[in-house]
Amino acid sequence: MTDTYTQFVSSGPGRKVARKIGLPQPVILRRHKPGQPLVPGPILIEGSTEGADALASTLLSWDLDVRRHAVPKERLGAVILVLDELTHPDGLEKPVLTAATSLRDLAPNARVITLSRHPGSAPDAATAAARQGVDGLLRSLAMELRSGATGNGILLADGVSTTSPSTLAALRFLLSGKSAFVDGQFITVGSPAGKLPDDVEKPLAGKVAVVTGAARGIGAAIARTLHRDGATVLAVDVPAAGDHLAEVANEVHGTALQLDITREDAGQKIIDHAVSRYGHLDIVIHNAGITRDKLLANMDHNRWASVLAVNIAAQLRINEALLASEHFRSSPRIVSVASTSGIAGNRGQTNYAASKAGVTGMVRATAPLLEPHGGTINAVAPGFIETEMTRRVPLVRREVGRRLNSLRQGGQPVDVAEAIAFLASDAAGGISGQVLRVCGQNMVGA
Q1: Which of 79, 117, 170, 360 is most exposed, with minimal Cβ within 10 Å?
Q2: Inter-CA distances, 398 with 259, 386, 394, Å
Q3: How far is CA 157 from the centre of its chain?
Q4: What DSSP character marks residue 129?
Q5: Which residues contact 163 (CB under 8 A, 6 or more apart)?
Q6: In whole angstroms, what is the distance from residue 247 CA to residue 253 CA?
Q7: What gap in Å lies between CA 5 and CA 20, rounded to an integer?
């Protein structure tokens, strides 16, 4: 769905009008195109630790243009602030204010990324305060950036280096156009696990992936993105969506499975189909979901039960089948689509919010069960995404929803798909039990 306002204020005359009367000025975001540069300019790495030095060497080996000191008035594609050895809040001032002098030199659609340690594992109060301080400064800084630039952070567990596979995978994702609508968020790398791909353009080569709810919208975008990244896709949706499902499956050179995922045997049906066609199953994307909105005072059994059945109960049953299957044992990946409604709530969506919050709980509890097999499970929580569903929202509410984030616009289905493809990769093997918001730093919720 086209955002006519963003198109208008991105033009010369429209930009002048918006600036003159103080209207929001969203810009057209930089999104991934195969073969394009990772960032739109040199990368400044700020930090004096061994981790900063090691990271700079690694990025140089990627043939990136890396700076260790700012060059006055040079347009930067990214600033990476390495804070992996913080032990006291006093240690924030020098590196942060040094990096601040380069913020006016950021190119449009640039990236600011922090690398720091997770506060939950801090050995003392001062270290915990310093590490938590990074959270507040990064989220605030993300709200100050302009021209499509975003700010995000990577949290490293103790024992995880700045150059571990999942750290580098998260960094590549956040630097790239694949993270266009991810802003003000943190990705936690909990272990040194993970394996970088031989071909960065085909990180899912050789993988077999199932996508539920694949006939339209976000599900179709997920199928296309996984295919682009090298996966063989099994597209799943209800029989009523059979024609659209077949179109998507044909487009990605995969297969279609017409299936109601609320069936008791849905999980086994999916496994059997994947194994019979391809011999194995590596990735499952739980995208299928429905809404049946109503104020709780007017909620009835059918609206409540149908939403919970599709959005969370079906995922739980399918996961039980996956965990019990010998065909889902080789570094398996599960990614679920949650929602910012499940984090912050939304008026008239108590059933939907309960189901999506349930996805978060399921992801956290299931992560340890996949760990013995080298597997991971994560969730992606979209905010306002331009889909058929949001097109039906009344105009005023739709415009408010679009502008209620730091990027002042709605996201695209591909933005959700890119985050899912990243989390489904072998390189993200050190990231599990996490929820990544794809919401442009929506101004509600944590």
Answers
A1: 360
A2: 32, 10, 6
A3: 19
A4: H
A5: 51, 54, 55, 58
A6: 10
A7: 16
Chain-centroid distance, C-alpha 442: 14
Cα distances (Å, whole numbers) of residue 397 to 22, 95, 170, 389, 400 = 20, 41, 34, 13, 5
Gyration radius of the chain over CA positions = 22
Residue 24 class from Cβ within 10 Å (0-12 exposed, 13-18 middle, 19+ buried)? middle
Q: Which residues of 179-208 are buried (b: 16+ CB within 10 A; e: fewer)?
A: bbbbbbbbbbbbbbbbbebeeeeebbeebb
Taking Cα atoms as reference points, which of 222, 62, 78, 87 lies closest to residue 150?
A: 78
Residue pLDDT, tens place only, 190-214: 999 999 999 999 999 999 999 999 9
- Is residue 99 within a helix (H) or strand (E), and if so which, with residue range? helix 93-100
Domains parsed from the chain with CATH numbers = 25-189 (3.40.50.720), 208-438 (3.40.50.720)
How confident is the model over 352-370, as a mean pLDDT?
97
Q: 3-class DSSP state for residue 276?
A: helix
State the greatest distance between any 2 C-alpha atoms of the chain, in Å, as a whole number. 64
Identity at 297, one-letter amino acid code: A
- Find the helix packing angle between 217-228 and 413-423, rounded to 10°: 50
| pLDDT, tens digit, 9 for 90 and up, residues 162-172 | 999 999 999 99
List the one residue out of 236, 177, 235 whose CA is nearest residue 37: 177
**What average pLDDT does the structure give for the chain?**
94
Residue 278 has pLDDT above 80, yes or no: yes
Question: 306: which 2 tokens?
Answer: 């149908």
153 backbone φψ class: left, alpha, beta (φ>0; ψ -120 to 50): beta
Catalytic (active site) residue 352: yes
* DSSP 8-state class, residue 432: -
Q: What are 43's strand-pairing partners?
A: 66, 78
Question: What mean pLDDT do residues 69-81 have?
Answer: 95
Phi, psi of 27 (to 5 degrees): -115, 160
**Structural tokens at position 39:** 């960032």
Packing angle of the helix pair 350-370, 301-308 (nearest 10 deg): 20
